[in-house]
Design goal:
Helix content is 39%, strand content 33%. By secondary structure, it is α+β, with helices and mostly antiparallel strands. It has a single domain, classed as Alpha-Beta Plaits. Helix 1 packs antiparallel against helix 3. The longest helix has 18 residues. The radius of gyration is 13 Å and the shape is globular. It comes from Shinella kummerowiae. Pfam families: ABM. Keywords: Monooxygenase, Oxidoreductase.
Length: 95
């Protein structure tokens, strides 16, 4: 899971780049099982990403992809804070 804080003045541009990156990752990478992004209701500049990969190799491969590298480069000045939070799935379900 990733917790990000985005410069509010650049939030629309950030969200567009994030959407592009998530779409490409899910479409192009078999090891990306799920990428979900949400914003805190009363603080839309605070973004939370729930990322699920097939394994550590899939995660490392994701970090090296051109679309992820583009996202990192173009959003570097927009991200005020980034915290990666390792989590262990308890139960994941979708319909």
């Amino acid at each position: 899971m990733a917790e990000l804080e985005i410069d509010p003045a650049q939030l629309d541009a950030y969200n567009a780049l994030l959407a592009e990156e998530i779409e490409a990752s899910v479409r192009l990478e078999p090891g990306v099982l799920m990428l979900h992004a949400v914003a805190l209701f009363e603080a839309p500049e605070k973004i939370r990403l729930l990322e699920v990969y097939a394994d550590e190799n899939a995660y490392q491969a994701h970090l090296a992809t051109p679309h992820f590298q583009k996202y990192k480069m173009l959003t570097a000045s927009m991200v005020r804070a980034l915290r990666l939070v390792p989590v262990t799935p308890i139960l994941m379900s979708a319909k």
